[in-house]
Automatic annotation (TrEMBL):
One of its GO terms (biological process) is arginyl-tRNA aminoacylation. A motif ('HIGH' region) lies at residues 130-140. Belongs to the class-I aminoacyl-tRNA synthetase family. Residues 432-552 form the DALR anticodon binding domain. InterPro entries: Arg-tRNA-ligase, Arg-tRNA-synth_N, Arg-tRNA-synth_N_sf, ArgRS_core, DALR_anticod-bd, Rossmann-like_a/b/a_fold, tRNAsynth_Ia_anticodon-bd. Keywords: Aminoacyl-tRNA synthetase, ATP-binding, Cytoplasm, Ligase, Nucleotide-binding, Protein biosynthesis. Its EC number is 6.1.1.19. Monomer. It comes from Desulfofustis glycolicus DSM 9705. This is Arginine--tRNA ligase. GO terms for cellular component: cytoplasm.
Length: 552
RNA sequence: GCGCCCGUAGCUCAGCUGGAUAGAGCAACGGACUUCUAAUCCGUAGGCCGCAGGUUCGAAUCCUGCCGGGCGCGCCA
């Protein structure tokens, strides 16, 4: 906001300098205006002199001094200019400019931080995509929160977001699930059948079987096909999965199933197209895709000698469907164990004539759970994993969201159950939410004491001159740019770090200064700051799907 | 063996995509409640940014090679 205004100013001074013959125009677009690391280095800093010096082999400090002289003339934004270090030009913005942020925030209200940079681009975010063979585990939980937070950030920045969940219901995995349910069913109606060797052992399989007994008694005991059992399992488990996701505030626009790709002929079309382009061949009874043409080590089987496709084929067909549905940007969120499938899918869509550039894949690392300081051992096979539902029971939706968002996807995530569940000071979720509650509390007090939070015409924001007040104003001013960049970089964790920082500044300020005091004008000014801060907290929390409690 | 990710304070992790003197939260230690919520604050201590080279005005960040950890490398998904 202010940074972009300053950038325009710097650009103008740069051009002025070119016209005056102080330097050439070569550095255009190469220098930056940034917020420096240390507070004694001004509010903003530009490396323009260093860039020019590098290009023209000149003395950076001298160039910096000349550039500073040009900036000095601009007094509406700038309070001070200084040359520092190897040749940085540090710029201090006038307090009055920061103080105007309060008006800006209140004018925008709920829209503060939201933007239209997305330009209505249509984006699909595919995430979770767990096959309905059992309840969601904590690994899926991370993906669910990550994907939803990314979706929310994109929505906040003017994208049209479509959330989609893809699952395989045509393959072996779901067949085994059906067989597992049938075995439990037969066991329950007194006709024990051998349980499949690689069957699903979880207690939930019995639950599904019990539902079948309740509905049909022993009427299904002579059914040989696995189909009815599989369908039932899929339906029941999906109902549970959707309910779990809903507990976290996640709703998908569509559950896309693999089987539909067979039914509408998409699978056959993909094979035919690839074959027509000479990218498919038969060997040892299987059908191979020439992935080696796309920079891979070797070709891959897409149809097994048994006639059954491998997972690759439907994955490619599914991605072709995404392209056909005319999205501008396709975001896939996968666990890091799916890394091997990505090149195949991208090779597939490239081969079919689509721009693989439109696909962004985010791989997230695994989650380890910590309880009593020790790692919780989990095994999918034995169904000893901790489910998302159990996690939500234990720590609640906000803490789960917060903890899953706290780390960038590339990092493995250690989820400390005791910390997330603790209602105490070391829990960062409460630290941030308490910030918002505290602001609400101050405003409640103001109301009770009859200190009206005046229309901003009565408020003299120039009274907000304390260092920590200016720091709070600066932090608020940085919020829109933060949201924009977190959205475009697909990095929700940055919002969390921002909120923790803002909360820290607020709590510190609160302990140092009284908002409602003896001086009515000062109280008014500070209350206007509190109102603006509340807006930023609320917007920040809401944009990433967290609640903003008014009391705690 | 090959590919991707990670390695930063005792622990868990940030570090705005190459900037200036390295950051936060926990844990440790010492302080602050007659006050708008102490779910808070203030202070102290804590570092060979895995190691070694290279690129340049400048590297935690980029390139190469090692070391250590995770995930993959199927006619499983």
């Amino acid at each position: 906001m202010i940074r972009s205004r300053l950038k325009e100013l710097v650009d103008r001074c740069f051009v002025d300098g070119v016209q005056q013959g102080l330097w050439t125009g070569d550095a255009a677009g190469k220098y930056t205006v940034e917020i420096p690391k240390h507070e004694n280095q001004g509010d903003f800093s530009t490396n323009i002199a260093l860039v020019i010096a590098g290009l023209e082999k000149r003395n950076p400090r001298e160039l910096a001094a000349r550039f500073a002289a040009l900036l000095e003339a601009e007094r509406e934004l700038i309070a001070a200019v200084a040359v520092a270090g190897p040749g940085f030009v540090n710029i201090t913005i006038s307090h009055s400019v920061w103080q105007q942020v309060i008006t800006t925030v209140e004018a925008a209200g709920e829209q503060f931080g939201r933007s239209r940079v997305g330009g209505d681009r249509r984006v699909m975010v595919e995430f979770v995509s767990a096959n309905p063979t059992g309840p969601l585990s904590v690994g899926h939980g991370r993906q669910a929160i990550l994907g939803d937070a990314i979706a929310r950030l994109l929505e906040a920045t003017g994208h049209h977001v479509y959330r989609e969940y893809y699952y395989n219901n045509a393959g072996r995995q779901m067949r085994v699930l059906g067989e597992s349910v049938r075995a439990r069913y037969l066991e329950l109606v007194g006709e024990p059948d051998s349980f499949p060797e690689d069957g699903y052992q979880g207690e939930y399989i019995y639950d599904i079987a019990r539902e079948l007994v309740a509905e049909a008694g022993d009427g299904l005991k002579d059914v040989v096909e696995v189909e009815p059992f599989q369908r039932k399992a899929e339906a029941v488990i999906f109902k549970d999965i959707s309910a779990t996701l809903a507990r976290m505030g996640i709703v998908f626009d569509k559950y896309f199933n693999e089987r539909s790709l067979y039914e509408n002929g998409a699978i056959d079309e993909v094979v035919a197209e690839l074959r027509a382009k000479g990218l498919v061949y038969e060997e040892q009874g299987a059908t191979w895709f020439r992935t080696s043409r796309f920079g891979q080590e070797k070709d891959r089987v897409i149809i097994k000698s048994s006639g059954e496709p491998t997972y690759r084929l439907p994955d490619i067909a599914y991605h072709r469907e995404k392209f056909r549905r005319e999205f501008d940007w396709l975001i896939d969120i996968f666990g890091s164990d799916h890394i091997a499938t990505i090149p195949d899918v991208l090779a597939g869509v490239t081969a079919l004539g689509y721009e693989a550039d439109k696909v962004t894949v985010i791989l997230h690392q695994f989650v380890t759970l910590l309880r009593d300081g020790k790692q919780v051992k989990m095994s999918t096979r034995k169904a000893t994993f901790v489910t998302v539902d159990e996690l939500l029971d234990e720590v609640g939706a906000d803490a789960a969201r917060f903890f899953f968002m706290m780390r960038k996807p590339d990092s493995q995530l250690e989820f400390d159950l005791d910390l997330a569940a603790s209602q105490s000071q070391e829990n960062p979720v409460y630290y941030v939410q308490y910030g918002h509650a505290r602001l609400c509390s101050i405003l409640r007090q103001a109301g009770e004491k009859g200190v009206a939070v005046g229309a901003d015409s009565d408020v003299d924001t120039a009274l907000l001159g304390e260092d920590d007040e200016i720091a709070l104003l600066k932090a608020m001013a940085a919020f829109p740019a933060l949201i924009e960049s977190a959205a475009l970089q697909l990095e929700p964790h940055r919002v969390i770090f921002y909120l923790m920082d803002l909360a820290g500044r607020l709590h510190s300020y609160y302990n140092k200064h009284r908002v409602i005091g003896d001086d009515p004008a000062l109280s008014q000014a500070r209350l206007s700051l509190i109102v603006a801060l509340r807006t930023v907290f609320r917007n920040g929390l809401h944009i990433v799907g967290l609640t903003a409690p008014e009391t705690m």
